[in-house]
């Protein structure tokens, strides 16, 4: 009915305010508790139950935790701890099972600072078990303690059937919970095996000696995670024998407070670290929880390492005049470091536990690491010098890369137009990138022949003047001072991609959509000099824009080796075999001559042999064997001098014919 009101928004008064009760507090707003109503929130609900099992193991009750991922997205977590108390609680005048699984902010971990029940606990807020139960389609709980088995069953946040309890003839203790995250609560409950592998490996690393057994029902696989050496063993695994300093393990225990009016609490922590140029890592854990954003430990590590290494550089007078101070990036580029801290009072940034904010933890870790490294550098001069030398190399390389980035962006910026012409570049008329072809030719004479022989509608010409830099053996600063390389990159239009520790993010401007050409065709003389120029151009593309090769945009124009003339017809042979085949078929008189350089060819010949899509021969540069390509480039054009000598000694004779042809 026109004008009918389904809701009178003007009547907003005292009766308009309502509160969520029971399971709805989580089921209707899961993001408030778990940080998200998507897959990340669902994963965090799993971690809440796992945390309870880990807390038991940390207190010394049960060293094996079993986790199962079922085919229907259900999860089972079983520990061998003391078994959570579920009977009647006279103080609260309620059953403990009701408090643990049906009451937010109820638990046994509020008095960790007094050493009651749990000293260093992952769960502090009394939310986890209840919130996960509320967000489940169903949950089954089995608890074993004092010769009893307790059973509970929940559906959509509601208990069904109360607490069941019976005696068992066993001393078994522990808790086993099976539940299925509810698709009505989370938008996605399909938690992949990779999540479990990742989280269980991390927990094994920071809970030294605790074994995690993961059964993947989907893949029918069982995986065990245990680190007898804890974080030091993990750092050793990451370094894989490539570290250039000792692997250090720093550990201590202390007490302190975040402010004068705040309670004093216990803190213990470990730091495992080494320096390595092959692999790097920076990870922080607190009370077994992985701190993705770090917080206090991250600030402590950054401040301590910058201060200690900077002081050593100054003391040894290793900075050049007016040189800027090192940054943490310069240290992190060669650092493998893991911290593992525990405290009886913890201030998490939020329930997802990805960062902590304790002021005392930051200060205690920072001061201890500073003092430790100061003494270590004095007593271990070799390690100190290696670390400082590498940090300064990283710093100067980063600063050089930044200068290069600014320079490259200036050079490659702008468009190719009348005001920004590229010297001797000849564009084509068409703007349709799907048909445009760029011929990269050798020298000005070849430019003239190709320019007159091409189809100006879709074929552009870019001459290279002599042999360009070997980009595999030149640093980026030198490469981008080369006019011909910069000009060629401007003509291509797609930018550059550089896989360099210091330069990748800053210099990587590559965008295939900005490529102005459908085909990039390298066209050089069929002699040794021509082959070398072709190889250097390919090396440039391989180094600065390898995606052009993987996307099959790069071609080589095959130019004829011989010209065979008869009275009526001219034949072109592209190899010795082809020449012999043509000659053997001829019954008339002919003349045979070695094909001239591209610059000496007449335009008609250039069109017919090299540029006409109907008659030319193009070799597509294929990306199939990336490993072999890299190995070959490094052998023939890289820094492997000894390998190159051995290759020439063993295989050089196969290429003598090419040298004779020149």
Describe it.
By secondary structure, this protein is α+β, with helices and mostly antiparallel strands. It is built from 22 helices and 26 strands. The strands form 6 sheets. Strands 1, 2, 5, 6, 7, 8, 9, 10 and 11 form a 9-stranded mixed β-sheet that branches. The chain has a 5-stranded mixed β-sheet with strand order 12-13-17-14-15, with helices on both faces. Helix 4 packs across helix 5 (128-134) and helix 8 (296-315) packs parallel to helix 10. It is elongated. Residues 1-5 and 108-116 have low confidence and may be disordered.
The helical percent reads 25-40%
Instruction: Identify the overall geometry.
Output: elongated
Secondary-structure-based class equals alpha+beta
Span from first to last CA? 94 Å
Number of contiguous helices: 22
Mean pLDDT: 85
Number of strands: 26
The assembly state of the depicted protein chains is single chain
Q: Please compute the radius of gyration using only Cα atoms.
A: 35 Å
Low-confidence stretches: 1-5, 108-116
Tell me the major beta sheet: 9 strands, mixed
* Percentage of residues in strands: 15-25%
